[in-house]
Amino acid sequence: MASITSPGIGSGLDVRGLVNGLVAAEGQPASNRLNRQELRLQSTLSALGSVKAALSSFQSAVAGLTNLNTFQKRTASSSHTELFTATAVGKPVAGRYEVEVKQLAQAHKLASAGFDGVDAVVGSGQLSFQFGDPSKPTRSVTIDANNNTLAGVRDAINAADIGVSASIINGDDGYQLVFSASGTGEANSLRIHVIDDDGDNLDNSGLSRLAFNEDAEQLIETSAARNAVVMIDGIQVTRSTNTITDAIAGVTLNLRKAEEGTKATLTLGLDKNSGAAAIEAFVNAYNEMVKSFNQMTAYNPETREAGVLNGDAAIRGIMGQLRAVMGNAIPGLEGGLRALADLGVRTERDGTLSLNKTTLSEAMDRDFDAVGRLFAASGLASHASVNFLGAAADTREGNYAIQITQLASRGRYEDLASSVSSLSVNAGNNGFRIQVDGVTSGSIALTEKTYASGAELAAELQSRINGDNTLRNAGVSVVVQYDSVNNRFSFTSERYGSASKVAFTELAANAADIGLSNTGSSEDGVDVAGTIGGLAATGSGQTLTGSGNAAGLRIEISGETLGDLGSVNFTRGVGVRLNESLDSLLGSNSFINARTGSIQSQIKGLDAQREALAKRLDALETRYMRQFTALDSMMAQMQATSNYLAGQLAALPGAYTGKK
Questions:
Q1: CB under 8 Å to 598, separation ≥6 — which residues?
Q2: Selection from 333, 405, 401, 396 nearest residue 552 by Cα
Q3: Which among 197, 287, 464, 506 could disulfide-bond with 125, CB atoms 3.0 to 4.6 Å apart, if both were Cys?
Q4: pLDDT tens, 297-341?
């Protein structure tokens, strides 16, 4: 049976207190040292987090400077906003224009005769909607027993999303179905062809009551399709919509009210405020970052208190790297703007930046677009047929000569041996399938009728082909043209490049009567070909991508010119260079992350040292307890012996007891 012990009872000593005191005295210095080390490491870790936060905040301001559009904005204002408003969406030439809104565009609306109620049966069959613009695809909606009521037809039209909306109005003549073109103008005027299940597509019975075309007008026109008419500096501009985007390059006019005879002024200018605000935000963000860094590296000689990162070489390295980027001139830039100093951005003694707004304004007045090129990545083309699209991260700066050996073309199909012998489309010749850019259409059927001209039949062909769901969903389309001299059709893909091709895969038995054949000449499109900077470039459609030093440089080639197309001068501005430097400072492989990881490992090492210290102190406590327990036991035995001897001596005869 184990004995029950209570240290200190035998000797009267506070053994537990003595042991705890000795162990604490042994462990406290080591524990304090580890706590000081952790506090220092945690403070440094927090400071590095603040460094990353400051750099990230600065990068957000820099990001706005890497986009050339930030510095190319224009302003557009109207002197009479009740008539029209204007927005600059590109790079219009600054100037003033006299504008008169004579007529607003209007949508086409058609109404049916009155019905007894929304549940009245209209009929069944197919409704085909065509638009005034022959390039717009024909869209068809099937009406059957599930949707042959007035409300059912309305819902089927709206669910089809075909550019036409339908509604029902309960008027004096009953419930009338109203078709409204989603778009305004004559290009969106409606023609509705009906295939009526009752066998007569033109009478005023069944589904044909909804026909509205050159052969049958069963609907009432409640609002005519009308174009917008506006005079700009005395030149008439007619468009199908009240939003005009192509009258003045880079300007969108929003017509709001027609008032013939009233003239207003459109003023176009340079939007210097947007670019100046971005530059000012950049300067302020940089100064905030410097302020944050200064606080972390400061030293107060009076209190002898130093910032967490005082004397840290990393901060000096970061600031040195960023200042070098901002202080260097950008090679390859033309004109007088090559460095931040040219815009009035200066470095002060305390390391912050200052901005002279007068100098900046003068620079913008002198060369507005050059300010953007100083900050962003840009490619300045010397030839009108060359448009800079973009570049890759590893594209080298430089002036690259452009040579074009082949222009991009579109796939085209034409049967040189056939001709149109009839303009009458019937069940024997109206069906076909066509393949455009490798996508095969569904079964396409032309409207059965006798067409007034080859041009009208060409418009029907184009509308039906581009209205095919399979082709439309694939984003491919064609242009159909009628050659009146040779009396034949040609079919051209809207796409450029080697993937562009057109071919018929299936034709009705008598399709040759209307000039359709699958034995004609099919000419596939080709990609643009040439060199950028003397090295072969890769063509895709009208886009040419460079190689070598120009790897990733993308340009678009338009026009009809072969050979020497000048050059593209590609530069990376201060904003792009700063952004790249900040990416390297904040990236996963950055020295800040490496140092953060090292500190975190050191903190984990301290935890391991604490565990080792705890084990050592536990062992020390056990040893002390064993030793003091043995001492306590020995003292207890000695005390017992002392008491025994004292008793024996007191019992001896004549023994002196100390009493009188």
A1: none
A2: 396
A3: 197
A4: 887 788 787 777 787 788 888 888 999 999 888 887 776 788 999
- Give me the helix-helix angle, 15-63 and 313-327, nearest 10°: 0
Measured distance CA(404)–CA(556) in Å, rounded:
11
pLDDT value, residue 658 = 59
Do residues 380 and 334 lie in contact, with contact meaning Cβ atoms separated by under 8 Å?
Answer: yes
- Taking CB atoms within 8 Å and a gap of at least 24, the contacts of 5-8 are 5/629, 7/625, 7/628, 7/629, 7/632, 8/632
Interaxial angle between packed helices 272-297 and 15-63, expressed in degrees from 0 to 180 and rounded to the nearest 10:
160
Residues 76/77/78/83 CA torsion (nearest 10 deg): 70
CA atoms of 74 and 91, how far apart (whole Å)? 6
With both helix axes pointing from N to C terminus, report the angle between 574-586 and 368-375 in degrees, rounded to the nearest 10.
20
**DSSP string for residues in 50-104:** HHHHHHHHHHHHHHTTS-GGGG--EEEEES-TTTEEEEE-S-PPPEEEEEEEEE-
Query: 3-state secondary structure string, 169-196?
Result: EEECCEEEEEEEEEEECHHHCEEEEEEE
d(CA 41, CA 32): 14
Q: What is the CATH number of the domain that holds 121?
A: 3.30.70
pLDDT over 50 at 87, yes or no: yes
Beta-strand runs (E) in 541-657 = 543-545, 554-557, 563-572
Residue 242: exposed, middle, or buried by beta-carbon count in 10 A (0-12, 13-18, 19+)? buried
**Whose CA is closest to 545, among 322, 349, 395?**
395
- Can you tell me which residue has the tokens 């990733």? 552
Whether residues 497 and 561 fall in one domain: no
Contacts of 514 (CB under 8 A, 6+ apart): 420, 421, 422, 423, 424, 425, 429, 446, 457
We report the CATH number of the domain holding residue 442 as 2.60.40
Q: Are residues 508 and 419 in the same domain?
A: yes
Answer yes or no: do 293 and 344 share one domain: yes
Name the one residue in this structure whose structure tokens are 């792009």.
Answer: 576
Nearest CA-CA partner of 445 in 430, 463, 460, 458: 430
Q: What is the DSSP letter of 550?
A: G
Contact 111, 176 (CB under 8 A): yes
What sign does the dihedral 337-340-343-348 (CA atoms) show?
Answer: negative
Tokens of 62: 């820099």
Counted domains in the chain: 5
Name the pairing type of β-strands 502-507 and 563-572. unpaired
Euclidean distance between CA atoms 230 and 255, whole angstroms? 9
| Residue 191, CA distances (Å) to 88, 106, 108, 180, 315 in order | 36, 16, 10, 12, 72
458 found inside a domain? yes
pLDDT for the residue 1 = 38
Residue entry with tokens 């967490």: 308
My answer on whether 517 and 415 are in the same domain is yes
- My answer on whether 304 and 332 are in the same domain is yes
Give the CA diameter of the chain: 164
> Tens digits of per-residue pLDDT, 177-204?
999 999 999 999 999 999 999 999 988 8
| Residues 216-226 pLDDT 10s | 999 999 999 99
Residue 417 and residue 492 in one domain: yes
| pLDDT higher than threshold 60 for residue 8 | no
The predicted model gives 565-582 an average pLDDT of: 93
Note down the domain range covering 374.
Answer: 277-379
| Residue 193 burial (CB count, 10 A) | 23
Q: Using CA atoms, how far apart are residues 518 and 512, in angstroms rounded to an integer?
A: 9
Q: Helix (H, G, I), strand (E, B), or coil: what is residue 647?
A: helix
